Every structure is written in C-alpha cells, then in structure tokens.
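Researcher: I need the complex structure. Ligand is beta-D-glucopyranose. Inputs:
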Amino acid sequence: MGNPIGIDFGGSGIKAAPVDLVMGDFAAKREKIKTPVPSTPEAVAEVMAELVARFDETDSPVGVTVPGVIRHGEAFSAANIDASWIGVDVDALLTERLGREVHVVNDADAAGVAELRYGAAKGHEGVVIVTTLGTGIGSALLYRGLLVPNTELGHLEIDGHDAEKRAASSIKELEGLSWKEWAERLTVYYRTLEKLFSPDLFVVGGGVSKDSEHFLHLVDIATEIIPAKLHNRAGIVGAAVFTTEKDD
Ligand code: BGC
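Model: Output:
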C-alpha cells in the first residue's frame, strides 16, 4: 500500500497530499481546490474525489479533517461549515464517493496528533493543549500521548461571548485588531484554559502560527506557550496518521 492521503477541509480551501509517515511530511506536492459554496457534504465530497485522483496513490487509505465534532465517523456540529453536515455519516459518504477506506477526524484533533507525533509536542507526556487559531478556534487535549477528542474549547463561553468569536485569527482580521490588541484577547482566552485544565504546555497552531513572533510573547500567562511546528500542514499529516491507525 502507498502513502496514506490526508485531506484538510477548511472554510476557504480543501487541501490534500500523500503523507510520508516516517518524516511526518508531505510525500508529494499539496493540491488545493476552493471550498465550494455552499459547502454541502455532496459538493465537498465531489471536490475531494477530484483531489485524490491527482495523486499516484490509487488505493491507499484517506484521512479527512472536518471542522466540527466527529464521533464514530458522524458529524455532530458545523459552526463554520454548511449546517447540512450535522447527522451525516461522513465516513460512509466519503468511503462510497472516493471508492476506498476513508476516516474523518476533527481538524484540531488531527493537528494535535500531528504535533504530538512530529512537532512541537513531540513525545510530551504531560497535559498539552493544542489550539488552532483560524476561522474558528479548535482544540486538542493531550495527556500521556493520548488524545481526548472533540474538546471544542473554542466554544467556551467567556464574559458572555463564544470564545472563538472574540479571539480567532479571523476576528483579528475582521475587526482590524493590532497584534497587541489581539494578544490581549488571547490572554483572556488562555487564562481561562489555564484555570480549567492546568496544562503543562500550550501549542498554538493554525495558519497564523507562522507569524507567532508578532504575538505569542504578548500573551501574558504562566504556562509555557509555543508555536506549532507543522503550521498548516498539521491537519493533512494528522488526518493521514489517524486513518492509518484506524486501519490497524
Ligand atoms: C469548530 C471545531 C473546529 C474549530 C476549528 C470550531 O468552530 O466547532 O470543531 O475544530 O472551529 O476549525
């Protein structure tokens, strides 16, 4: 069997690449297609079929990230994607459409697994919270190398607000916040996580993690907080790891 393929289903783009599990990196150039509007399961499945057909790996398993709660292959929430995902058996839909084994996983959980295996949290045995800052805020809770899935810490209610609506990086753009202003909101957010979980480490992922030198040192908390290493490759890599382990 060839390299597993990881697909990252995001609000603006759907990206895919075969993954080298030894290196924890792409085994071929990443391919990308814009997320269809509306992002219904059928339209997205169509795009994913087109993407996987571009790779040499014709029968290897596929792992797919979804920005929502995923339990046993089924979607239970859809904060930033079309509401029609809720209640869909995504594993079944995509396995049928792609004609091969497909497993789906929450996007932040995939990123968490990738950072634990290859990145900033590599080999960490303590309590680690990986957050992805993007359109929303995703979270992965790790302890002794294991993942507690679907923690959804982006939707904590803080000061009467859904946390991601105040502190996601999309909100920084939308409201034109400076790095300093955004970091103040992140401080409130991470202090709340500190209080609830007393973690040993925060890892900050999502596309904006490549700009971490602009804001991470301004986040005023007691816990160590470091940028992700895989940046926006983490979803694809983590999805490929996840699907391979499901197959075992
Ligand atoms: C969703 C999460 C997701 C996060 C990042 C949130 O709005 O509820 O499931 O992990 O966005 O995409």
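Model: Summary of the prediction. The chain is about 30% helix and 25% strand.
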